[in-house]
Amino acid sequence: MSANSLLTILATVVPAFLIFLFIYSHDEHREPAKLIAKVTLFGALIAIPVIIVVSIIKTYGTPEAPLQRSFYEAFFWAAIPEELFKLLTVYWVAYNRKEFDEPFDGIIYATASSLGFAVLENFFYVSAGGIQLALVRAVSAIPLHLFCGLIMGYYIGRAKFTPKHLSPAPFWVSALILPITFHGVYDAVLFYQHYTMANPSISELAVIIGSMILPMVVIGIFLLRKMKKYNVYFLSLYYEIPVTKLEILLKNVIKSEPVLNELNQVQANQLVTLPVENLTETEKNNISGVHLPPPRKNSRGFLGLVYALLGSFGVLIFGLATLGYLSEFNEEIHKPLLLLLMGFSTFNFFLLFLKGFRRNREKGKIRSMSMKILLFVSYIGSSSIGIDIIKKIEEGDLEPSENNYIFLSIFSILWLIAFFNKSKKPE
C-alpha cells in the first residue's frame, strides 16, 4: 500500500473518530464499549436498507427543474432514509437496554450510529475521489453526520426521560425532523451547485460548506453543553427526586453504569425523606443500600492514549508521504513549497501527539474550545488549498489563481492566531 493510500484512509477515518471522541469525553458516566461498538456496527449496516429504499424511490423519477430536483434528491434520496434508519438503529439496539439510563446516553448512542454510517459512506466516496475529496469531506460531510447524530441523540434522551405527566412525542418529532432538515438543506445546496455551476473554486465551496456546517456545529455544541449541565436535572424530573439529593448519589462517582442501574431501583420517597444534610460522607455513600465506589480523578487517560497514537501515526504517514512526493515531483523550484506543506501537516500531528502525551499532566496554560476548533479548521483549510496549488503546478499551471494564495494566507494567519492563543489555567 502506497503512502498516498494510507494517507487517504487516515483522512477518511480519523476526523469521524476525533469528533466522536470529543462528544464522548463529555459523558460523565461512560457507556459500555461493547454496546457503543454494536451501535456503530449497526449504524454502518443500515447502508443496506438505505440503498434498497432509495433504489425503490428512484424508480419514480425526479423533477426536471434544477432547484426542485436538488431538494427532491437531497431529502428523499439521502436525508430522510439515512436519518430515519439512524434513529431506528438507536431505538432497536440501545434504547431499551438497561445501560441507557440517563438523558446524555441518547447523544452517545445516536452519535455512534452516525459514526458507523459516516465512515462507511466516506470510504465509498473517497475510494473514487482520493485525498482531496477526503480532506473536503473531513470538514463537511463528516461533521454533518456526527452533529446530526448529536442533535438527534439530545432529543432521544429527552424523549426517554420525559416526566410521566408529559408526552414524549414532541421530542421524538424533533429527533427526526431537525437532523433531516439540516441534512437535506446541506445536500440540496450542494446538488443545486452541481446542477448549475461548473467546477466551483475552493473559495466558493468553502463559503457554501461553511455557511451550512458551522451553524449546525454551533447548535450541536450548545445542545451538548446544555445536556451535560442539565442531565441530572432531567433525571430528577423523571424520577421525581429533588436535584440536591440526587446529586449526592452521583457526585464524584466512578465513571461507570452500575451506580445508575442501582439508583433506578431506589424508590423516590426513600430519597425524599433522607436527612442528607446531617450525614457524613461515609453515610452518604451508603444511602438506601446504594454503594458508591471511591472517587476517581477524571484523567480521561483513554483519550490521551488515542491522541498520542493518532498523532504518532499521522507523523509517520506524512513523513512517508513527504519522501514519496519529493522523489516523484519534477519541478525543482516548487519542492520547497511541497516540503513546507508536508512539514506543516507533520507538525500538526506532532502537536496532537503531545496533547495526548501530556493530557494527564498539569499544564499552566490551556487553549479554549473555540481556539481548538479554529486550529483544526484552519489546518484543514490551509492544507487543502496547499494541495490544490501543488496539483495545479503539477498539471502545468505555474500561476495558480490569486484567490488560492489569498485563502491560503488567511487560513495560515488563523492557524497562527489559534496556535498562540492560550490563557492561564484557572487555579
Topology:
Elements: H1 3-24, H2 33-45, H3 47-58, H4 66-95, H5 104-138, H6 141-160, H7 169-196, H8 202-239, H9 243-250, H10 258-263, H11 268-272, H12 281-284, H13 301-328, H14 335-357, E1 365-366, H15 369-394, H16 402-420, E2 423-424
Antiparallel strand pairs: 1-2
Helix pairs in contact: 1-5, 1-6, 1-13, 2-4, 2-5, 3-4, 4-5, 4-6, 4-7, 5-6, 5-15, 6-7, 6-8, 7-8, 13-14, 14-15, 15-16
Number of β-strand runs = 2
The main pleated sheet reads as: 2 strands, antiparallel
Write down the domain tally: 3
Strand portion:
under 5%
| Tally of DSSP helical segments | 16
Q: Rg, please?
A: 24 Å
End-to-end distance, in Å? 49 Å
Helix content: over 70%
Instruction: Sketch the topology as an H/E string, one letter per element.
Output: HHHHHHHHHHHHHHEHHE
Principal-axes shape call: globular
Average residue pLDDT: 75
Oligomer: single chain
Give the low-confidence spans. Answer: 252-257, 267-279, 283-301
Could you give the order of strands across the largest sheet? Answer: 1-2
